[in-house]
């Protein structure tokens, strides 16, 4: 053990806090919390953990450690959750792909809120519902809500009266706040109904709508009453599909889990007002050698740190060591008491068991899916190896593609598949620097030169060599690539060109194409690799083209030179719509943008809106009032 690490272990305080363990590259590999930092951290280096392979691996990689003191164990828990989410340490239990789950976002901070699907939660004042594990389910929910409620879908910020509202208003899919047909107060009442629905309080919503329908009928507003009746019928269809779990009309989440090899599946049933309204399952990695209670506690921390609604009761299959601190933390987030309960008998116990069976089924299905995918990948690699007469399966395959429009903004992509699966972290993209005009041969030669030259120089991002290179193009692109590879000493790497028309493979100095069967797994894999290279190249090309077009628009605005143009592009993420819809206050927050320049940008995108009222508002903003 290093002397510096030994000194830190000796001087650890006997106080509450969070500890961070780092490897020799300074990367955080484990985050934990403790009531007594000294005792907890030093225990990793004692003989009691000697028989744990995972702890052995962790300790062998610890080169440094840090700690952060907290006043309470709840503060330590919150900090631990945030650090695990931010750094994704290798040796912590963690939710897999948690950032990819969609949420429904209700923009309650806007005058006339809208609802949309997003992938990341932000502290922007909006209400978030989710996460949903099924993108299809969240889009179906959004579709239903838009059918039930005439919500706006536009992203405009101002709602000055317009004589001709959008088409959605004519087909009664939008309340048209832009036309003044609905007041902000009336619109917000509708948003509260949407929130009741998303919170699973459909019974409250139907009672509210029934009352409103009766009032409309009494006031002889029969058309309005008929619209509310149709809403009620649609909501009642949703309620009819929901299984009644409890007659107590309580809100609760029911959690159970199933274990696999170094992963676990946690299933959650959502019970609202006594009815099962939905369920989700989540996979956690790094669970090997962990107790069930530790896995459940890790899930609760990570899951409830990112959801909007927390029920007053959470049912679990077993007691947790951290139950008290978890209840305190959850109660603080909810704003009222949250109970973690372990039912031993009765209906609730049976419900927990049911959730456990569903978790096991989801885990077994995932294992089967992975096994099938692995078998297909192995079959594909075997077929490719046999077709190309390779001695071993090509574990690392790289594919290159060129993208341009008449030679403009030429770019190239390099995508990597390892073991038959995409490795996005290994993808690289290139902006063509030395070729002018639409010359794919020369562009391919430049890209291959840059890639393998960096490999020869042992640059970390390019140091791993491929077993197989695929050039998206015919014999011309293949010949250009092979010439460079021979010059740099990488001619031994098997390289093929993929002709786009017939999807035949071509080898260097081999006039006859290699034709894989149309229904072979090998051809399917090559097609996926080629399509991914094309997608990645097109994405980069569009990014550069969009930046160029946006820059050309900004060139027309007085007082916006190269530096201010770059500041605007960076601040608004290369989005013309964001710059166009930005308020004067937002424009003034751009570094290096003067008041006059901000006013010029706003005036350029809002020429018709500069009436006397807006001029007065603009003058107040620019004057700093």
Automatic annotation (TrEMBL):
Keywords: Coiled coil, Cytoplasm, DNA damage, DNA excision, DNA repair, Excision nuclease, SOS response. Residues 198-230, 360-390 form a coiled coil. GO terms for molecular function: DNA binding; excinuclease ABC activity. It holds the Pfam family UvrC_RNaseH. The keyword Ribonucleoprotein does not apply. Its main location: cytoplasm. Residues 254-485 form the UvrC family homology region profile domain. GO terms for cellular component: cytoplasm; excinuclease repair complex. It is found in: Cytoplasm. Signal peptide: none annotated. The keyword tRNA processing does not apply. Residues 203-238 form the UVR domain. InterPro entries: GIY-YIG_endonuc (IPR000305), GIY-YIG_endonuc_sf (IPR035901), GIY-YIG_UvrC_Cho (IPR047296), Hlx-hairpin-Hlx_DNA-bd_motif (IPR003583), RuvA_2-like (IPR010994), UVR_dom (IPR001943), UVR_dom_sf (IPR036876), UvrABC_protein_C (IPR050066). GO terms for biological process: nucleotide-excision repair; SOS response. SMART domains: GIYc, HhH1. Residues 14-93 form the GIY-YIG domain. Interacts with UvrB in an incision complex. Belongs to the UvrC family. The UvrABC repair system catalyzes the recognition and processing of DNA lesions. UvrC both incises the 5' and 3' sides of the lesion. The N-terminal half is responsible for the 3' incision and the C-terminal half is responsible for the 5' incision. PANTHER family: UVRABC SYSTEM PROTEIN C (PTHR30562:SF1), UVRC/OXIDOREDUCTASE (PTHR30562). This is UvrABC system protein C. It comes from Thermanaerosceptrum fracticalcis.
